[in-house]
Amino acid sequence: MKPHGDIAQQQANLIVTSTLLMLLIIVPVIALTLFFAFRYRQSNPEATYAPDWDHSTRLELVIWGAPLLIIIALGAITWISTHKLDPFRPLDRIAEGRPVAEGVKPLEVYAVSMDWKWLFIYPEQGIATVNELAAPVDRPIHFRFTSTSVMNTFYVPALAGMIYTMPGMETQLHAVINKAGVYDGISAHYSGAGFSDMRFKFHGLSDEEFARWIDGNKAGGAKLTREDYLKLEQPSTKEAVRRYASVEPGLWGAIVDRCVDGKKMCVSQMMAIDAAGGAGKGGLASTLRSPWRDTEGGKRERTVVAALCTPTNPLGLPVESDASTRVAQKN
């Protein structure tokens, strides 16, 4: 409840405000319950005895009006803060009374939850780390999240709330850390045998310290290729910190598209084909060439282009006819 990031601080304030509003009802109800039990006990001859009493307009107004006002207040606060603290919403301030300076770009960080470790990719700096995260103090951070196999949750309590990671999908978070230090990061969603050890350290650094941290990763790391990534994503527990001095271009997109190995069609390619009507007649494949051609013997055959996932073809469709299959059909 005493975090060092503005988003987490606003969330903590929201919890406190909501709790106090609810206590405005809870405390009087508990106090009055005890008072009534004592005041109207059977052994108290001074208490008013009114067995035929059944209604009081003033009491009804209090009983229904006060909770209604609390609910309206909670609803308004929830609606406003839900939009204000939307994790997809870019930051307009780094702390209370401190707007984001003009021209300051957020630090881009791509995060991948694995079994059972975290991979962080810094696309602008061209490095990657395993189970270690760092960012400059008072600089907005733009996270993009995905997962390799099962749903998980990224959570640095000092920074912001929990954000889910899902395979084949991308979620986001905009946040900022306002105080230098080393903070705990965890996985907050059970994901299997190594879940309890799926932890990492988040370092809040000055600009100079962050620059040195980047240089240290570039000096002491290897290159993160697709082959290395496929080995890294295999289940393992209690992984030590790893550093990669460079990252193969296009790796993040392939991770989200679930086609790092290049042996299967990417998710985005499937969606593109489906959006165009599928791979059959009238679909994307059949529009690349004439779908029918005459052959010997008085037959016609339809050419169906196989959609392949290759780095050089973003649509996943081969240009030459070598990759196509022919389905012979009678007139």
UniProtKB/TrEMBL annotation:
GO-annotated molecular function: oxidoreductase activity
Entry's localization field: Cell membrane; Periplasm
Residue stretches in coiled coil: none
Keywords: Cell membrane, Electron transport, Lipoprotein, Membrane, Oxidoreductase, Palmitate, Respiratory chain, Signal, Transmembrane, Transmembrane helix, Transport
UniProt KW Oxidoreductase keyword: yes
Membrane topology recorded in Swiss-Prot or TrEMBL: Multi-pass membrane protein
CDD domains assigned to the protein according to its UniProt record, in alphabetical order: CuRO_UO_II
PANTHER family on file: CYTOCHROME BO(3) UBIQUINOL OXIDASE SUBUNIT 2 (PTHR22888:SF18), CYTOCHROME C OXIDASE, SUBUNIT II (PTHR22888)
InterPro entries (UniProt xref): CcO_II, CcO_II-like_C, COX_ARM, Cupredoxin, CuRO_UO_II, Cyt_c_oxidase_su2_TM_dom, Cyt_c_oxidase_su2_TM_sf, Cyt_o_ubiquinol_oxidase_su2
Organism expressing this protein natively: Roseateles saccharophilus
All residue ranges annotated as the Cytochrome oxidase subunit II transmembrane region profile domain in the record: 1-89
Transmembrane segments annotated in the record for this chain: 12-38, 61-80
Gene3D superfamilies in UniProt: 1.10.287.90, Cupredoxins - blue copper proteins
Domain named Cytochrome oxidase subunit II copper A binding: residues: 104-216
This protein's record includes keyword tRNA-binding: no
Name of the featured protein: Ubiquinol oxidase subunit 2
Record-stated family: Belongs to the cytochrome c oxidase subunit 2 family.
